[in-house]
Design brief:
Blueprint (H helix, E strand, L loop, with lengths): L5 E8 L2 E6 L7 E3 L28 E9 L6 E8 L10 E3 L14 E3 L18
Antiparallel strand pairs: 1-2, 1-4, 2-3, 4-5, 6-7
Protein name: Ig-like domain-containing protein
Organism: Anopheles epiroticus
InterPro entries: Ig-like_dom, Ig-like_dom_sf, Ig-like_fold
């Protein structure tokens, strides 16, 4: 598309268009509703897009479609995945354990971490040894 005039830039989440930049239109920028997508208008244009307030609902497949102007209307599409991660809001909790054990005792307990994406990786330590 080198040397060709820009007709439009479109952004999609899944199959839903949420952003369009068409330099020959007035206004050139149009934003459409899409779940989990909030565009920062002042930081977006024909060459970059900035999203605000990301949440788990923002995760998904995003595509950028760039089209050249007439006569070719040559179009290219690039797609990528966006994964929004959420760290646990609280420390893990341990349940079902006693405060003391004897040599040879079997230790059974449950360590739980809530509300994280991807799920937290939990590791047990005894006296600072894994």
């Amino acid at each position: 598309m080198d040397g060709e005039s820009l007709y439009s830039v479109k952004w999609y989440k899944g199959r839903r268009e949420f952003y369009r930049y068409t330099p020959k239109e007035s206004p050139p920028m149009k934003i459409f509703p899409a779940q989990g997508v909030q565009v920062k208008r002042s930081a977006s244009n024909e060459s970059q897009l900035t999203l605000l307030g990301l949440s788990l609902a923002s995760s998904g497949k995003y595509s950028c479609e760039v089209s050249a102007d007439a006569p070719s209307f040559h179009t290219m599409i690039v797609t990528g995945d966006l994964e929004v991660c959420e760290v646990p809001k609280h420390v893990p909790s341990i349940h079902g354990m006693r405060s003391r054990y004897r040599v040879g005792d079997i230790v059974r307990g449950n360590c739980t971490s809530h509300n994280s994406r991807p799920p937290a990786n939990l590791t047990w330590y005894i006296n600072e040894a894994q």
